[in-house]
């Protein structure tokens, strides 16, 4: 089986099909458990949701008072997110700026965000470069939260559904986040809720 390119065309088609065929499941999907665990105690400010998909984490953040820049290169996913936000009410919708852009080349504003969250981004280039670019967008005192599904299940050595994808690992974060500039609060692998699907790398760091 060939590995997909995970480029814009791949994601656009996947989102269009998923939203067409599974819109009920998508609408019911709760916000990401790692985000809830790691960000619930943070004081709302400016957030970047990088690779926001259909926006359930963006909506969760906006409902908690965050002003969110939600970036993805799938127009279908962003369109779904935008209408879900409008249905959630004008206050929530007004807190979200939906941006269609390729995170491989889009440069976020430097040191601007109180929270940069990037969950399950399939990185086309180097994961360490992506960590570096996301980290540069975090304001002093702000939080970087990155989550990546790991390609090998450490319990069994078997390939997971993330095999062939480049997602962030704990090693990538440790390699990039200089301890003089970052306090690494969480850098660990957590067993995923779906049995047999391996682990997620969860990285939460505070910019000094
Ligand atoms: C596995 S989904 C995760 C979506 C969401 N963060 C979540 O946790 O459900 C990966 C998302 O990243 C987006 N994506 C992948 N590569 C991207 C890129 N280079 N630029 C912008 N978005 C990208 C895809 O369109 C997709 O919505």
Keywords:
single chain; 208 residues; alpha/beta; Rossmann fold; seven-stranded mixed sheet; 8 helices; 7 strands; globular; binds S-adenosylmethionine
- Which parts are unreliable, with pLDDT below 50 for 5 consecutive residues or more? none
CATH architecture: 3-Layer(aba) Sandwich
Q: What's the gyration radius in Å? A: 16 Å
Query: What letter string, H or E per element, gives the SSE order?
Result: HHHEHEHHEEHEHEE
CATH class value: Alpha Beta
State the fourth-level CATH superfamily. Answer: Vaccinia Virus protein VP39
Give the overall form.
globular
Largest sheet: 7 strands, mixed
First-residue to last-residue Cα separation: 45 Å
- Count of discrete domains: 1
Bound molecules: S-adenosylmethionine
The main sheet orders its strands as 3-2-1-4-5-7-6
SS strand fraction? 25-35%
Number of strands: 7
- Total of DSSP H or I helical runs spanning 4+ residues: 8
The CATH topology assignment is Rossmann fold
Broad structural category? alpha/beta
Helix content: 25-40%
Instruction: Let me know the average pLDDT.
Output: 96
